[in-house]
Amino acid sequence: xxxxxxxxxxxxxxxxxxxxxxxxxxxxxxxxxxxxxxxxxxxxxxxxxxxxxxxxxxxxxxxxxxxxxxxxxxxxxxxxxxxxxxxxxxxxxxxxxxxxxxxxxxxxxxxxxxxxxxxxxxxxxxx
Length: 127
Known about the structure:
The protein is α/β, with parallel strands linked by helices. The protein is built from 4 helices and 4 strands; from the N terminus they run βαβαβαβα. The chain has a 4-stranded parallel beta sheet, with helices on both faces.
């Protein structure tokens, strides 16, 4: 089933930036919202961990992961896997955690995957 214009699609955006971005990653946010709109998806709920290292406490990510586990979202939009972690294996573990709950992780088109192609998450999802 295609997710284009599917009324059951429930979307979220996750962004993380270090050091703190006074503009709160507005360019990334706008591009992701435009991408969702272009696919006919509803406006995503945005989760932002601003000014946080990937190995710090990430309250917005934890909230997102809890909601994904409860089935609130079918797609999480990100500019790239780097928002989850700069370490490829850790980023893949987080993506795997999301996809194992039946939720898709969609990268912004034109941005290369920041994860090794042999990671378990990539191999399992065929992404």
